[in-house]
């Protein structure tokens, strides 16, 4: 968890008080999965609806090097995440998301924004602000713009405790 990650492009992620881009948890973007994109360079927009506990659509097809704008709408009753990463990235991130629940940041259907600012020591907090991820309360929406590399093992997933295990993940396939 570092607070020094600052690669969020203002045009790449739309933030509101109820929508927070994902994690100073250290599992953000990486060259193997891609990098933050610029909205004006997106080849298309894909709307993804987040339900309790699945996505619609459940699979997304992209091309290597393609920039996609994702519009994310939480249609469920719980807080959900849309996180682009590899299965191992999701597994590591789930442990940190559990800490967010244990400290009262994620409270079922709402986020405690005050607790997200909590000082965990050594420059760490519960902020959730990597450009490959967004945490969304019910009835709210968010956005991620992402440029994909040629990684063959990418998923989008919700890493809120229990959600991934309940089937809330989807495959990113390459053309």
Automatic annotation (TrEMBL):
Signal sequence, renumbered to the chain: 1-21
Residues that span the membrane, as ranges: none
Pfam family, one: Cupredoxin_1
EfeO-type cupredoxin-like domain mapped to chain residues: 40-86
Family matches, as SUPFAM superfamilies: Cupredoxins
GO molecular function: metal ion binding
Protein name per its UniProtKB record: Plastocyanin
Organism: Marinobacter litoralis
Classification lineage: Bacteria, Pseudomonadati, Pseudomonadota, Gammaproteobacteria, Pseudomonadales
């Amino acid at each position: 968890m570092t607070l020094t990650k600052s690669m969020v492009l203002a045009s790449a992620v739309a933030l509101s008080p109820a929508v927070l881009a994902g994690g100073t948890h250290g599992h953000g973007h990486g060259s193997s999965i891609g990098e933050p994109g610029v909205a004006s360079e997106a080849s298309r927009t894909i709307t993804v609806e987040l339900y309790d506990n699945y996505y619609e659509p459940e699979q997304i097809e992209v091309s290597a090097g393609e920039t996609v704008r994702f519009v994310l709408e939480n249609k469920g009753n719980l807080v959900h995440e849309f996180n682009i990463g590899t299965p191992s990235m999701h597994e590591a991130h789930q442990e940190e998301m559990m800490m967010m629940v244990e400290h009262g940041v994620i409270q079922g259907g709402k986020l405690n924004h005050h607790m997200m600012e909590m000082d965990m020591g050594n420059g760490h907090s519960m902020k959730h602000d990597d450009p490959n991820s967004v945490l969304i309360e019910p009835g709210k929406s968010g956005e991620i713009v992402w440029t994909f590399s040629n990684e063959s093992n990418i998923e989008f997933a919700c890493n809120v405790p229990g959600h991934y295990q309940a089937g809330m993940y989807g495959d990113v396939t390459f053309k």
